[in-house]
Amino acid sequence: MCALYSFPLRRIHRLPQLNSDKEWKTYFDDGIKIVTNNQCTIFCIRKSKSLIGGNINDQTLIDLPNGIVFKDEIFAPCEILDGSWTPYGNTGYVNGRNEKITVRCKDSASAGVVIATFVVPTSSIKFN
């Protein structure tokens, strides 16, 4: 007989849940999904925006939702698509600082779509 069957059912319900420290929380806002646990935070961005090329200005892409703030500055590459979903190539990067994510790109796009996914340690993010 399996050892598990020798426990009364009420005792099985009292056993601690394994991996409870890996519980995930999800935040959504227009163009961004943030999934986090106590170790890492995953940012998935898909946002439409008219973009000015030349890698000269930081253009605000997204304000972070629910009082989320970057403690440390982050950089990540992004893919920029034109209005017909044709990729320009890996021509830009996103920058997370304080409560904003900005974008810089090589080429201008009047109806661009910025796509980026990056993972950061949760210790570098402040959740209010």
Question: What labels would you give this structure?
Answer:
5% helix; elongated; nine-stranded antiparallel β-sheet; mainly beta; 53% strand; 128 residues; 1 helix
Helix content: under 10%
Number of helices: 1
Q: Alpha-carbon distance between the termini?
A: 50 Å
User: Biggest sheet: strands, sense, closure?
Assistant: 9 strands, antiparallel
Mean pLDDT: 82
How many whole angstroms does the radius of gyration measure?
Answer: 21 Å
Ranges where pLDDT stays below 50 over 5 or more residues in a row are none
Order of helical and strand elements = HEEEEEEEEE
Oligomer: single chain
The proportion of residues in beta strands is over 45%
What would your notes on this structure say?
By secondary structure, the protein is mainly beta. The chain contains one helix and nine strands, in the order αβββββββββ. The chain is elongated and about 40 Å long.
Quick recap of the structure?
The chain is mainly β and about 130 residues long.
Topology overview:
Blueprint: H1 9-14, E1 25-29, E2 32-36, E3 40-51, E4 59-63, E5 69-81, E6 92-98, E7 100-105, E8 109-121, E9 125-126
Antiparallel strand pairs: 1-2, 2-3, 3-8, 4-7, 5-6, 5-8, 5-9, 6-7
